[in-house]
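Please, structure for the following, as tokens.
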Amino acid sequence: MTELLLDGRSLALEDLERVALQDDVTVGLTEDAQLRMGASRALIEELVTSGNPVYGVTTGFGRLADVMIAPEDREALQHNLVRSHASGMGDPMDRSAVRALMLLRANALARGHSGCRVLIVDRLLELLNRGIHPRVPEFGSVGASGDLAPLAHVALAILGEGRAEFEGAEHDVADLISAVGLGPVRLGSKEGLALINGTQATTGLGVLALLSAERALETAEVAGSMSLEALLGTPEAFRQEIQDARPHWGQGKSAARLRGMLAGSEIRESHRVGDARVQDAYALRCMPQVHGAAREALRYVRGVLETEANSATDNPLVFPEAGVVVSGGNFHAQIVSAALDLLAIVVADLAAISERRIERLLNPDLSMGLPAFLCRNPGLESGFMIAQVTAVDLLSEMRILSHPASVDSVTTSANQEDHVSMGLTAARKARRTVACLERVLTTELMCAAEGIEYRRPLKSSAGVEAAHAQVRGTVRALDGDRVLGGDLDALNELVRSGAFAQIAKEYEG
């Protein structure tokens, strides 16, 4: 069991994913974070006694911000806020998404600009550390005024209400916390608002999508290298001089990956002399330019999410040093929403170029002597024919999902929230798009590995041979038609694990 301490300012995306996917990390707060939270809470309590109007503390919310709340009703105000906003619908988010959301909300509160007690974050982390995951429906946020419904479903658990997943089964939260000796927490002024006002559902899903996309991009370098070898392509287009003539960072990085993956290939040497082709098709020759464009985009997305994961995104914000509580718009997720739309676009394009490489591997008019559909007995057998059809089905869905959500603003809250980001929509579809890409790359890896079999006894490069062995450790070569669904699913799990991404990094030139 390892420990992760939150300070609201330095949470790494990889640590977030580790907490989201595993239970062997205990999360707590740094002393500095607790001191900052204490100072902001003291200012809230001072303002409460002053009688001055403070949004969400002594007033109602949204369109009702001009309604003053009597002191004796302020606890009920916060409880009513959480209960009324827990209005999400649909299937529950998976546990990794919920854990990411919980960790991010705790980290945002740890910055000390939210005015809630340390007790609130301690309880949130207690639930996380004990593996009690509130049931959070997948629909319920427009990405402005925060991810209100998703976060409210988490906040319900702090009140001891709602449902939660524990060890694979769903229970009443009241029963779960009672079993471990905990009771419900009563919320003070602003604490309900602090719990539900932020971008953490959008950001949590976005971080999980990004890290998977980064691994998928590295996998694309491996799959593309294998396809190029199987198709007797040339790595000349990846030369350093070409990249230096157009020095985009991502293009150069991808070219270096490809050079490293392909170095020392017997297959390449076998057709270096006497090959009448001057250049390969774009799906092979332009891999650095296309994969590199995705690298540039994902680097931008990473920067946005790293900043957002360590930001205070609720409203109003508390600044003890200045002695003020100020209403603003940090809850608006437009920057995250637009970034995740960009992620979906470039991921769909990675799938598009991968599918074209699959086509070349299976089409006997394009495959440099490989049998149709990589069959042993074309005609009698169909080989990978329908595996490509499945990849095209996935690609079509990805193209629909790549339509941006961030341009679709629908006014809510009686025209108070008159421009919204649709951030959670962008995050949901980004994550689904990445999952589709992983499956398309799985298909390419399987087909490319089969194509390599027809170039034996020649060996490919060390990197390609390592990837080929990885495929063959999960999926055997074709010796006739068989059901491929199980093979594809098994290999997809290997893709998702990052096994092929690791090979790309090990063999970088």
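The chain has two domains: 2-198, 205-308+346-506. The first strand starts at residue 2 and ends at 6.
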